[in-house]
């Protein structure tokens, strides 16, 4: 592998995705990605990229929030091209992506109102997660057992890092406590004496009974791994850095890598039973993106050769199976044997985010490694 591979694919991916109109709320992630590229990479500092981001941001501010949903902060998950709401999820993720888009766009444009709106939405998210979730619209059913999904503290930790990057003062101090809470919640998913990362646990941080409690998502655990590593590096927490690599990267990789066909399985059952998710044996694009980021980041800071070997292993599989060298972009969904099973390249869940974020971050990390070698 080499740096030019990431540079070439990032440029191709950006050009390809700019030709399409996305009607799903993942346009938030596209706005975030365009702004991040425009702000931090000179070759993407182009007026057409900024204008696309600003247009997307204006669309989101006008249509994404749906006041008649019961909360003035609830966002649609899916919109028509002319801004009519089609679907609302009773989760926090559409709103999280909205925060990412607004904050990053505010950094590029200098729009203080937009930055304030992002912070206000973050306050609402913290309230929904830690105080009162009723505003999400999910009914409280008598037989419903409280469950803590790892996705929730992961996403809030991502937002803490977004909102505090290169900033100081009271806002950063406020989010420091939230970040610590998120880390504590994520670490509760390290179960069975530190030998397994489980996707969901009880509200007390214990393993849940049945197939829900046994569920593992290797890609998600790897993503949590680099979130934790990044947080540990920013806060000088060496124990957390080690836990991020040894537990949240190595365990899911060793259990999730398909030894016969290669690639990361989508879901696993910690006791070896067949997961109940019908797509459990498929290979999806985004877990491999997260694995590339995780292992390159881990190698960059530890210089352990085994971590670079892991990165190379994922790299070889990813670029030989998902990327379409002839027509550009990446496929998203493969069979267990590694054959393309769904040949669309964009949809409700695969937008302009996981692939370009992976390419962007890997290029940045490789740049850093090479610069250190030169000095």
TrEMBL record:
Q: Which residues form the signal peptide?
A: none
Q: Which domain of life is it from?
A: Eukaryota
Q: Which GO terms describe its biological process?
A: carbohydrate metabolic process
Q: Which reaction does it catalyse?
A: an N-acyl-D-glucosamine = an N-acyl-D-mannosamine
Listed InterPro entries:
6-hairpin_glycosidase_sf (IPR008928), 6hp_glycosidase-like_sf (IPR012341), AGE/CE (IPR010819)
Pfam families (UniProt xref): GlcNAc_2-epim
- EC number(s) for this protein? 5.1.3.8
Record key words, sorted = Isomerase
Q: In which pathway does it act?
A: Amino-sugar metabolism; N-acetylneuraminate degradation
An example molecular function term from Gene Ontology annotations = N-acylglucosamine 2-epimerase activity
Q: What class of enzyme is it?
A: isomerase
Q: How does it assemble?
A: Homodimer. Forms a heterodimer with renin and inhibits its activity.
Family in the record = Belongs to the N-acylglucosamine 2-epimerase family.
Q: What is this protein called?
A: N-acylglucosamine 2-epimerase
